[in-house]
Amino acid sequence: QAQLVESGGGLVQAGGSLRLSCALSRLTFSSYAMGWFRQAPGKEREFVAVISRSGSNTYYADSAKGRFTISRDNAKNTVYLQMNSLKPEDTAVYYCAATSAVGPIATMTRPSWYDYWGQGTQVTVSS
Fold it and tell me: Contact, 82 vs 16, CB < 8 A?
């Protein structure tokens, strides 16, 4: 069974930065596109960003464009989410996920596309 472990969450002031990491094990990392989602209390899980298997293609939610950067290191089996200019509305539990789906990554925005999920890491942005 695949294992995804997120880290890097925490409490930060508005305007600050955090870098989330997600390590995947028990799977061939380079065979999966990787996504980040988030879920705030009382809200549905929402798409944040996705990166292709090679790392050459990325796609972001409008809320993340220009502030967040997704990247991956296939040698380390790890995907990252660099979050800058954080806002209180970015407060949520952030999840990484792996998908074996093929096709344009811009279509991989629904949680149902993803096969494996991490346990989540809390990000809290204070005003």
Answer: no
